[in-house]
Design goal:
Layout lengths: L10 E7 L5 H18 L4 E7 L5 E2 L5 E2 L3 E2 L8 E5 L10 H12 L3 E5 L2 H7 L7 E3 L5 H7 L4 E3 L3 E3 L3 E4 L4 H14 L1 H10 L16 H5 L4 H12 L7 H8 L3 H12 L3 H19 L4 H7 L5 H12 L3 H13 L10
Parallel strand pairs: 1-2, 1-6, 2-5, 6-7, 7-11, 8-9
Antiparallel strand pairs: 3-4, 10-11
Length: 336
């Protein structure tokens, strides 16, 4: 492998910590760098923790990290990872956007862990790039930034931009960086220290396969569900799903009832309503727009179906999510 790093050592990496950032993604990115330093006995990497005001930052799991520097104290960096998690749009500010632009103009390679791509997109720094995020946040990103190319890869490593899906995908991205900079042998050694049995490539799936996720192995049924997942904004007719899966409509009904205990119509509807729940939580799109994005032809039809599925109206669901987010910094809050 041709090594792509010819700069001075240690290579400096900045981590911008935003409130409610994903601790899992952050540690998964940093620990491979630390272990690479230890194995080689050389300072290959060094990292700086940055917050907007230089104050400590609390992650989504309630743990707090001290920042080394405030953004106003950092004027040049080889690379910067924006670390966020839930509610990345809450961290938007003019000083932060201006700072990201100054770093970009100074040649900094900018990237995002988990939902960090939201901040870079809002700053207008992802034009012409392909970005990946946590699978749960991809629909909201696509709704908000339809002009930016997205992927469902584990990570994207470009010349001036990078992104990863968060969680342990950050570890695979860090291992790929180590391999590119200092050779695949070192990356393998670091991976073994992490008890990470296989370094996943960027093309590995974020989620388990449908067959494993649902515990089903019927090829026709898996294809039918896959079609439904890919066609939520403009739903296919059940006849089209059956035909493209290679079965009759009656056979499709039988497969769903036999393996999943429900009808294909109910499954498809619940799939779209779950997407709607995510969009209500992660975007500020109005209720009608969310309904249309999930294949409903009117607001009233969407509201009735949503309430029947989730037990409350779309507006009530959004209000409840706001209450949850307000208490997200409590130690009991969830970590993605």
């Amino acid at each position: 492998m041709r090594l792509d790093y010819q700069g001075l050592l240690p290579e400096a990496v900045g981590f911008l910590l935003l409130p409610r950032f994903s601790m899992m993604a952050f540690f998964s990115a940093v620990e491979p760098l630390r272990i690479a330093n230890r194995i080689t006995g050389r300072a290959l990497f060094e990292w700086t923790l940055i917050s907007e005001d230089g104050e400590p930052v609390t992650a989504s799991n309630g743990m707090t990290l001290l920042a080394d520097r405030a953004i106003g104290e950092v004027h040049r960096l080889p690379s910067l990872a924006v670390c966020s998690g839930f509610g990345p749009e809450d961290s938007l500010s003019r000083p932060l956007m201006a700072w990201l632009h100054r770093l970009d103009q100074a040649g900094c390679v900018l990237g995002g862990l988990d939902t960090g791509g939201f901040l870079l997109a809002e700053a207008g720094l992802l034009e012409g790039e392909s970005v990946t995020l946590h699978w749960e946040s991809l629909p909201a990103f696509q709704e908000r930034f339809p002009g930016i190319e997205t992927s469902d890869e584990l990570f994207e490593l470009g010349r001036r931009r990078f992104s990863c899906a968060g969680g342990t995908a950050a570890m695979d991205m860090a291992l790929e960086v180590i391999a590119r900079r200092h050779g695949s042998r070192l990356a393998v050694d670091v991976s073994e220290q992490l008890i990470h049995e296989r370094i996943r490539t960027r093309r590995d799936q974020q989620r388990m396969s449908l067959a494993r996720r649902l515990g089903i192995h019927n090829r026709r049924l898996v294809e039918a569900i896959s079609l439904m997942e890919r066609h939520q904004q403009v739903p296919l007719s059940l006849e089209a799903v059956a035909s493209r899966s290679g079965v009759s409509l009656r056979q499709l009904q039988r497969l769903f009832e036999q393996h999943l205990g429900t009808s294909p119509r109910a499954w498809y509807l619940n799939l779209r309503l779950e997407r709607a729940r995510h969009l209500l939580a992660e975007t500020d799109s109005d209720v009608l727009s969310v309904g249309l994005a999930c294949g409903f032809t009117s607001g009233s039809t969407f509201a009735r179906a949503f309430k029947a599925r989730h037990g409350l109206s779309p507006r009530e669901a959004r209000r409840r999510q706001s209450i949850v987010e307000a208490s997200a910094l409590e130690p009991s809050s969830g970590e993605r």
